[in-house]
Fold:
Amino acid sequence: MANVLSGIQSSGQLTIGNYIGALRNYTKLQHEHDCYFMVVDLHSVTLPQDPATLRENIESAVALFIAAGIDTSKAAVFLQSHVPAHAELGWLMTTLTYMGELERMTQFKDKSAGKDSIGAGLFTYPSLMAADILLYKATMVPVGDDQKQHLELTRDLANRFNNRFGETFPIPQPYTPEVGARIMSLDDASKKMSKSSTNPASFILMLDEPAVIRKKISRAVTDSGREVKYDPQNKPEVSNLMSIYSECSNMSIADIEAKYEGQGYGPFKKDLAEVVVALLEPIQQRYREIRESGEIAKILREGAEKASATANATLREVKEKMGFIV
Ligand code: AMP
Ligand code: TRP
Structure:
């Protein structure tokens, strides 16, 4: 049994990229491992957030975790800010991280590009993420492809700590889906589908209404030609839609190619919309029930309690090894 930890930011509403790349794997891993899943609200404020919107996005994300199938009797579901050990180990990890390591992070480069004032938290973000993972001595971290570089830094920090202060942390590995680790934007297959995009046509939200999903998919950019063929190099737009189809239907890419051979993009996109709607409708139904039940506060209290027990023990061990008086 491994310790599993992951987190999703509350900087917008969750997309099917979040679901396919990460959330769905949470629900798979919870049966066999000791799982901790959180909304990383402290990470979210590394870019400016409107308070009322942030609060709504946090609650909505928690409800979607549960609606997607996370069982709180198996996995701890909590908010990063409810377990202060994250901020504290985050600081200690920042002191172990080199500037050069942070400067190399592509997420920092992307998110800071073109901005004149960049919060220091956006720069040190990966050190906090390393703390998130190491607090639970997690070995498996379900994430999408874009987080692999942050995971590498986490591994380096774990090794660095172990070398300086004695064996403490196991070395964590990313756990990514085979096909859906990088779902791209519907308007531009060279960009990751992202909840913080300013163009709503670029993403499908887990809470988009069926009519909206149908419209977004029918308008999704497709490559020239008409063949439904998986070829990410030459047909990135259609290949991305095929990945979404495959992940949402459990049909293999080869099955999808065979099914739409000679049919063109029209019928393929029409069916894709139905596959996505069929996947999301029951999740949306459960989501509404959870929001109405008023149970979120209780879920979060219990989750934070369970997470704190593990996190506080690790933090104490770390501080003792570093020479603090605990
Ligand atoms: P974020 O929305 O950046 O907090 O991402 C939360 C989780 O979802 C991380 O594990 C990401 O790697 C994953 N994720 C986000 N966007 C995508 C995407 N377009 N495709 C696959 N995984 C994604
Ligand atoms: N950086 C991750 C993202 O943007 C979110 C995150 C924060 C995370 N802490 C984490 C993911 C710990 C996995 C483990 O997607």
User: Anything to note?
Assistant: The first helix runs from residue 16 to 29.
